[in-house]
Amino acid sequence: MPDRSDHLTLNVNLQAFGQRPSAWQFSTGNPAALVEPDHWIASARAAERGLLDAVFFADQPALHNPNPRPGNPLEPITLASLITSATDHVGVIGSASTTYNDPVELAERLLSADALSGGRLGWNVVTTYNKAVSANFGLPEAPGRQERYRRAGEFVDAVKAVWAAAAGDGKYLHHGEFFQLEGTTALGPSAQGSPVIFQAGGSEQGRDLAARHAEGVFAVELTLPRAVENYADLKRRAAAAGRHAGVPRITPGLSLVIGSTVAEARARFDEFEALVPDNYALRSLSSVIAHDASTLALDEPIPAKILDKPWDPDTHPTSTGYRLTFLDWIQERRHQSLREVLRDFGGYGSRIIIGTPEQIADDMELWFRSFAADGFNLMIDQFPDGLHTFADHVVPLLQRKGIHKREYGASTLRDGIGAGLALDLVG
Q1: Pick from 73, 127, 118, 137: which is nearest to 95 by CA?
Q2: pTM for the complete prediction?
Q3: Strands (E), 132-245
Q4: In whole angstroms, what is the distance from residue 398 CA to residue 158 CA?
Q5: Alpha-carbon distance 331 to 309, whole Å?
Q6: CATH class held by domain 9-265+351-416
Q7: Which of 168, 263, 361, 371 is deepest in the core (most CB within 10 A)?
Q8: What Å distances lie between residue 209 and 93, 237, 304, 418, CA to CA?
């Protein structure tokens, strides 16, 4: 395999009780755990024990039915300050929408949390298309994809203008389609200059946004060939935008169910899945194929006319990048029954490995050395136990392969992932 001098960038998505929908049934008997500090601190400390770069929090500022899968009810930036006060090294990446925030307020809120953390904060830029979120903000529906991404690009420009002002004379100025801003900030730069920016969109607009601004990308690739293409494309776009060679760090999602043997891992997976309602996976798959999967025969393949039908990314809410990589993935399974596809679809939006530490470490090395990924955004089946298993059994194998660090050598998240200088592109 080709040699690389860098190390994996490893983040873990702290998805409430775990990535498996039924993880809450294997965790704690405390129904209030998700709003208590100890739950989050325990998982963050497990990530730090495994020398992970950051823990990651999604955000969905809307109420939802917690059965069968509870979500994180806490605001991510507030949660980030809790985590960094209780840990020494691990970074925290919190999601915040460009559609339903004010750029100056968010810029100062993020920079404040970053300063208090000692330079360990990251911002995951999202545009948010959920109709329930729109209703929370008094809107009948989310803006269209084109408008959301135009606003997102300008929003990040405005946030970075405030951060540049904090590192300079305190004065910021921004005039654009969505924002007319002029003012001063009393804040100074954080230990890493400003928060690290991550981005998760796979559409053309999302790729352009990542190329211009992101130090890290949460990718959704499911197949190695497409991941290699995506990696090269994002690096080319970033270079064309004048970014330095180290960014963006590309970290596909990777779901893990770990066992000492394949049979043990499969048994663990089956135990989790047995407690999930039958229609859970069907609903998730339906959103990707743009068809009600519950109307299809479980013991027959998904009809080609459904997989091949025209699809308009501007009117369908599913991630464009995920749908495209899913169609590549399903090509390898066109002759499988829907029932078999649903079993392999268990990552619910990310690639899944159900296997041994050796299989997981070998797979991660293959993607890393193939320049399909700079690291991974890990989805652990259940917290904190699954994360301890990863730290104890997968991390040592990655270290022996020379692709994961043996200690924290940097004091900031930016330096830890090799993201270079803050604000290398403003505007």
Answers
A1: 127
A2: 0.93
A3: 171-175, 180-184, 196-199, 216-219
A4: 39
A5: 14
A6: alpha beta
A7: 361
A8: 18, 10, 33, 20
